[in-house]
Every structure is written in structure tokens, then in C-alpha cells.
Amino acid sequence: MKRYNLPLFSVLLLFDWSLATEFSPVIETTKGPVKGLVLTSIRESKKYHSYRGIPYGKPPVGYLRFRAPVEVDPWTEVFDATKDGPICPQIYNDTFLGQEDCLNLNVYTPQLPKDGENTELKAVLYWIYGGSFLHGVASKFYYGPDYLIEEDIVVVTVNYRLGALGTIIYLSSY
């Protein structure tokens, strides 16, 4: 009888998560429509809107590999921003992680503007992770916005190219 407990628990956990998932309204950005999630902060259980993995640059591959980032082309389909985007290539603990198509950002906001209302502007924290340009990630797992959201601050985290893929473009301008 005990061997059925783990599968049953897994199914119940998945069912519980599906009930807790609330989609944020689709917002229109300058590049196209984006769909996110409504999440809840840790301390005060404050609901906030999460849009993750939004591309800001074209994939830096081929000709663009060692060039400055090029703005992403607009899209017409709704972009699914419900999970973190890919991280940039790096070696961490002797393991290669990431992929080159990694120029994406995450936006967390305590509220969205309402149509026809004059919404008060909020403070914005634009977070660029450390890591000596060798490793790092803008994931909610590492840099969750919960405490700042509770202070009514919009949080933006960004993935950027690391190592030779990220620094050679700056050396070529000297």
C-alpha cells in the first residue's frame, strides 16, 4: 500500500499547483503582446504580475555572435512569459550551462495600469546580476522580487552575454 503514496502525492501536488496558477492579463509591449502569471509574495502574500523570459535582443548567433546586441523584431502572436528564459552560456562548477539565444528579461510589477486611469508611476529596480561577467542568471529562483514587490517597487532582471561572448564586443571598439 505504501508504494502508491508517492504517485498519489505527486498527482495531488500537481493538481494543487494547477488550481493556484492564475494568468496575468495579456499586455501589449512595443514589440508585441505578452502573457504572464499572477504570483504571490512570500512574506505578505501580496499578489503581483510576473512576465519572464521576454526577448530584448535577436539571438546573438552567426554574424551577430561578437557584435553588440541587435533589437529583437516585433512579434504578433502572444508571447508566453510564464517561465524564465534561457540563461547565457557559462561554465559553473565545471559544467557548461546555457545557450546563445539568451537575451531576455523579466518584469515583476505590483500592479498593471488600468485603462483610462491616471496610474501613479512606481520606482523601478533594474537588476544586473554580478558574477564577474563569467557566470550568473536573472532567474526568479535566485533574484525573486518578493520583498521589493511588497514595497511597491517594479523589478526588472536581465540576462546578458558572459565571458568572451559578452566582452569581445566591447574590446573591438578601442
TrEMBL record:
<protein>
    <submittedName>
        <fullName>Cholinesterase 2-like</fullName>
    </submittedName>
</protein>
<keyword id="KW-0378">Hydrolase</keyword>
<dbReference type="Pfam" id="PF00135">
    <property type="entry name" value="COesterase"/>
</dbReference>
<keyword id="KW-0325">Glycoprotein</keyword>
<feature type="domain" description="Carboxylesterase type B">
    <location>
        <begin position="24"/>
        <end position="166"/>
    </location>
</feature>
<feature type="signal peptide">
    <location>
        <begin position="1"/>
        <end position="20"/>
    </location>
</feature>
<dbReference type="InterPro" id="IPR029058">
    <property type="entry name" value="AB_hydrolase_fold"/>
</dbReference>
<comment type="similarity">
    <text>Belongs to the type-B carboxylesterase/lipase family.</text>
</comment>
<dbReference type="InterPro" id="IPR002018">
    <property type="entry name" value="CarbesteraseB"/>
</dbReference>
<keyword id="KW-0719">Serine esterase</keyword>
<dbReference type="GO" id="GO:0052689">
    <property type="term" value="F:carboxylic ester hydrolase activity"/>
</dbReference>
<keyword id="KW-0732">Signal</keyword>
